[in-house]
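ok trying again, last paste got cut off:
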Amino acid sequence: MNEVDFKKYLVEKEIESQLVTEYINQIRNYEEYLSKENLTLESSLPKKIMDYSDYLVLQDETSVLDFLRAIMHYANYSDRPEFTTRVIDISESYNAMDNLYIRVAKIYGEPLRDEIFQDLTIPKLGVYPEKKPEFTKVVLKRLEEKLGKKKIIDLLSPCLHGRPPDDIEGDKKLLKELGIDGFLEKKHENLVTRLEKHKNEGTLEFAQKIDDEIVQYVRENQGIAQGIRKENIIYVSKLPYQMREYLDAKDDQMKKFYICYCPWIRGALKNGTEKEITKDFCHCSAGWYKLYWEQIFERPIKVEPVKTARNGDMECKFAIHLPDDLLSLNKMN
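nice, full thing came through this time. structure:
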């Protein structure tokens, strides 16, 4: 690491001086860790970031977040987007099981919560992501035995990790102007435009670099983004989590791994043990869309998974059920 240049970069980004010092120290510590294997920041594979963060959880749990922030800044400084991807792998949905812990107690009481989580330790931020499904298998099995299918779905449907803020008011206005079908088309166009911008500027869409093939794949699939309406159902498919790897993969098991965003199941998709996790767990992902559409329409909306990598499908697809009165209110006829 060129400390002088990295510090200059952080200062130019208006990072507080105390944090500048902390981030430089974090990168120094990471370099020391790498040096034990005769590696440097430049020669190490991005995966080492995940190894180190897993190591930190045991050595100094409080420093994990500072390290992840530091390596994100270093990735931007050194133009290493693959480092950013690994940080997203580590941090994506990291608080989902903490939220499940809270939600079970709130809805069903602390005694049941304590029974479900007995003798278990929720994996902390920084734990190697592919270790997490083993925890998921146990917790979901216990919940299924105690609560049954319907209550599990109700528990998961609001989404366990929330979703980033949307321009809800702007989308409401656009929906009113264009109607549902026009709105869906426009949102798809906006996604294609955004991906083209990422491709041209070399920036990331969530955790992935964008190239011409990815842009074309999305352009030809309007179901990606907000979806396509068929009668009173909008069908929407998620853009695979790691699109380049998904397109390149020859093995279906790995394709499913690259489709899935959720670290609480992805590792099981990789090793073929996903069926040990109840398929109802994907109602959490459906809840990500539910949170959005309920804000748009200001009423409860039913959303359910219809295809998922967990169930062996080559896409994650969700059905958003629209109440009949919305068909006329939003010019969908």
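cool. The chain has a mean pLDDT of 92. The CA atoms of residues 54 and 127 lie 5 Å apart.
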